[in-house]
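Possible regression after last week's pipeline update?

I re-ran a chain I had predicted before the update to compare outputs. Posting the input and the new output here so someone can diff against the archived version. Not blocking, just want to make sure nothing changed silently.
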Amino acid sequence: MRRQRFGPPGGTQAQILVHPAGVDDLAGVHPVARVEQRSTSFRPRRCRPSPVYARTKRQELVITEEWARRLDGTGVHVHAMHPGWADTEGVRQWLPVFRALTRPVIRTPEQGADTVVWLGAAPEAVQCTGLFWHDRRPRPITHALGAAADSPATRRELWTHLTALTGIDA
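New output (post-update):
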């Protein structure tokens, strides 16, 4: 397994893991948020960290699905995964109350890494593409009480924005 960056030299780059089974998006995703139209533009506006974080996680999931669609039939398999809440430096620094409340069930960083490490070698990862994994099982990307699927127009806008930033359009 190796980490690979992609994007124009000196420009915005994304990181993915490349291995014989395919590509894993290593960030957790937020299936109850929506990708807002025009959410890809960074115009000054009032910023609330939680909704921005949730939208960003949702965007990662949409990107994973788009990569899976575009790479279908090439032998490359693309998946997203959620590590669960792990006791990382970010949680300790930015979410101390959450950490205190979840301390009995919060995962170690090693437990959080379990699914992505498993995906790197699991036969299941090459039998499908574009799924969202958590605890070694595919999970739904939308929920009845959360956001519905994003519109095709919103998905296209996100992809167009990313290709403009990276110069990559598979």
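Follow-up from reviewer: compared with the archived run. Confidence is low (pLDDT under 50) at residues 1-34, 37-42. Marking as no regression found.
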